[in-house]
């Protein structure tokens, strides 16, 4: 499985996932979080960081010829709906999605 976390932030979900799976791809827009995530992840496992706006990520290309992606994340309040719709547009590349949403979104 290729596990992809959207918006890892400071790693509250990232590091437990990385410990369990050994490898994780994260999509993070905030460049200030890249170095701390990289440093903290180094002794735990293999962390691939994609520094982009998640709404510009082509999940089909990210999947490539591999198994469908598994998406997880604690979605930012202000763009939760656009992220969900974007992921659904790429449903053929995604096996499953598990997100936490703020009460105001649902």
Describe this structure in words.
The chain is of the alpha/beta class and 106 residues long. The protein has helices at residues 14-21, 34-41, 59-63, 80-89, and strands at residues 2-6, 23-27, 46-50, 69-74, 94-100. The protein has a single domain (2-100), classed as Vaccinia Virus protein VP39 (Rossmann fold, 3-Layer(aba) Sandwich), CATH 3.40.50. The longest helix is centred in the last third of the chain and has 10 residues, at 80-89. It is globular, with a radius of gyration of 13 Å. The protein starts with a strand and ends in a 6-residue tail after the last strand.
Distance between the termini: 28 Å
CATH level-two architecture: 3-Layer(aba) Sandwich
Mean pLDDT: 95
CATH top level is Alpha Beta
Oligomer state equals: single chain
* Alpha-beta classification: alpha/beta
Number of helical segments with 4 or more residues: 4
**Number of folding domains?**
1
Tell me the name of the CATH homologous superfamily.
Vaccinia Virus protein VP39
Shape: globular
Tell me the radius of gyration: 13 Å
Q: How many individual β-strands?
A: 5
Report the portion of residues in β strands.
25-35%
Here the CATH topology equals Rossmann fold
Which spans of ≥5 residues are poorly predicted at pLDDT below 50?
Answer: none
In this structure, how is the largest beta sheet organized?
Answer: 5 strands, parallel
Q: Which percent range fits the helix content?
A: 25-40%
Q: Largest beta sheet: what is the strand line-up?
A: 3-2-1-4-5
Strand and helix order: EHEHEHEHE
């Amino acid at each position: 499985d290729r596990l992809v976390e959207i918006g890892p932030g400071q790693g509250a979900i990232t590091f437990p996932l990385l410990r369990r799976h050994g490898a994780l791809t994260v999509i993070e827009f905030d460049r200030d979080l890249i170095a701390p995530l990289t440093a903290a992840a180094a002794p735990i496992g293999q962390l691939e960081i994609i520094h982009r706006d998640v709404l510009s990520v082509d999940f089909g290309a990210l999947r490539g010829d591999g198994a469908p992606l598994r998406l997880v994340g604690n979605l930012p309040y202000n763009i939760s709906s656009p992220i969900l719709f974007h992921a659904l547009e790429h449903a053929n590349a995604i096996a499953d999605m598990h997100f936490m949403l703020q009460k105001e979104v649902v």
